[in-house]
């Protein structure tokens, strides 16, 4: 399975800024090894501009940061998987901790999105992660297992492994500069791998588990070399083309 190097721009960039940056990333991905994929989760309003800037055949693929679990309807402010496909997206994120915390998204709702997005043809990354309070309270395992069980509840047992990935993003490491240490990442990713192996008939061993939370050009190589780390999901450091490209190419000698 290819490693997945993902940028999450969150609520940053106008169309022009996004198109420039997407072009800048793409031009630096000529050296992306064949065993890596790169994807950009851009704001909805910038997706069409990024698609146009990248053109057909780009290495950098596009994704939405969220979607609603219906094809169309009276859902003011929401975006369907079909609309993302229409903007040249092949991917979507569901369950980002910022949406859980700031917009009150429940595990059950995230589970509906995950299954609906996959059934609609989008490859899907389910984001999970514990708060510092949950970690300090010894709740790491039950929190991750609950988020996985409910987030994946509607997903078919035989889903192709490359279509579903999990992003482990400890809430206390997001945007804080405090990256989780190797021991913490290894423990959480092993727990997630064990869950996926049990949950899926055959693909659970191959599904990608990404790490997210203060990933930078200086720590990416160490992180992707850890067991059960199959890529990264990068926030702040993905906003500059040069920095994200350095992360996507981490460990590749020039
Ligand atoms: P930072 O890389 O800014 O910590 O954000 C991580 C994240 O939330 C990616 O989805």
Explain what this protein looks like in three dimensions.
The longest helix is centred in the C-terminal third of the chain and has 18 residues, at 182-199. The model has no long low-confidence stretch (mean pLDDT 96). Helix 1 (15-28) links the parallel strand 1 and strand 2. The protein has helices at 15-28, 44-54, 81-86, 97-103, 107-120, 132-136, 140-151, 182-199, 220-224, 241-248; strands at 3-8, 36-41, 60-64, 89-94, 123-128, 164-168, 208-212, 231-234. It is globular and about 45 Å long. It has an eight-stranded parallel β-barrel, surrounded by six helices. By secondary structure, it is an alpha/beta fold. The protein contains ten helices and eight strands. It has one domain: Aldolase class I (TIM Barrel). The protein starts with a strand and ends in a 6-residue tail after the last helix. 1,3-dihydroxyacetonephosphate is lined by residues 8, 96, 169, 174-175, 212-215, 233-237.
């Amino acid at each position: 399975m290819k490693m997945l190097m993902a940028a999450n721009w969150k609520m940053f960039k106008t169309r022009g800024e996004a198109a420039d940056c997407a072009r800048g990333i793409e031009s630096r991905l000529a050296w992306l090894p064949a065993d890596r994929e790169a994807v950009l989760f851009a704001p909805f309003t910038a997706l069409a501009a990024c698609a146009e800037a990248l053109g057909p055949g780009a290495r950098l693929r596009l994704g939405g940061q969220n979607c609603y679990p219906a094809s169309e309807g009276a859902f003011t402010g929401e975006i369907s998987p079909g609309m993302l496909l229409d903007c040249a997206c092949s991917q979507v994120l569901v369950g980002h901790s910022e949406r859980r915390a700031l917009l009150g998204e429940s595990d059950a709702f995230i589970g509906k999105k995950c299954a609906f997005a996959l059934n609609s043809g989008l490859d899907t990354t389910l984001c999970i992660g514990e708060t510092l309070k949950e970690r300090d309270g010894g709740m790491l395992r039950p929190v991750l297992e609950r988020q996985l069980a409910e987030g994946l509840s509607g997903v078919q047992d035989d889903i192709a492994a490359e279509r579903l990935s999990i992003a482990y993003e400890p809430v206390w490491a997001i945007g804080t500069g405090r990256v989780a240490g190797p021991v913490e990442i290894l423990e959480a990713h092993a727990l997630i791998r064990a869950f996926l192996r049990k949950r899926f008939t055959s693909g659970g061993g191959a599904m990608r588990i990404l790490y997210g939370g203060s990933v930078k050009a200086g720590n990416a190589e160490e992180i992707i070399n850890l067991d059960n780390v199959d890529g990264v999901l990068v926030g702040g450091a993905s906003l500059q083309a040069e920095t994200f490209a350095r992360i996507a190419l981490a460990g590749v000698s020039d």
